[in-house]
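Sorry, can you check?
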Amino acid sequence: MQRFRLGGVPGVTPAKWMRVWAERVPDVPIELVELGEADAPAALREGRVDAVLARLPLAGDDLHAVPLYDELPVVVSAKGHPIVAFETVTLADLEGEPLLADEGMTSAQLLEVVASGAGLAIVPMSVARALGGPDTRHRVVTDAPPTTVALAWLRANDSPLHQELIGIARGRRAGSSRGAEREGGRHSVEPGNAATGAKPRPSKPKPTPTPGRPRRRGGHGRSGRPGPGGRR
């Protein structure tokens, strides 16, 4: 039986979309394949998955990526760190603190190092909630840039199943056309935003038309007084 393999990086929660898929495409089961952050593009190119939910940017012109939602950035610390006393923090509050990067580590390994008290790490809220554990705490960093989760697949492998999945992720109703979605504007429906801190990506505002200048009556100057050829 044909299966659709959906890769997911740490923190993404597509369970809601997968339930909708099971209702709309019952003859093609969908399977979630857990991937590391850096492994998503390779998994697509090697044929291990048919599509991935991953964070931008994704390198390569051979990939088609559709942004879905933004995630709140948080700083993760050991539970006894003084920063836990604050509800939110700014980047200026973190000056002088050792900030760790995930170079050479998985997200889970990074947060294990944070839990040991070796430093802090800024990650998406969904990652902190999924992998933080009882020995860490996290606080929203109000002025740090968000991360964006996208649905991506190989351009060469585009299929009706990929379009069905992106329609589900965007909240398109069953039986609606892609054209109707375009007319209705861009929709971003994120799974479980209360738990992940995800925010839908807003549509671009429509430009406000500039009202035309009032037509000036002939024979009158700017002051409204009769001009040389006007009626007195």
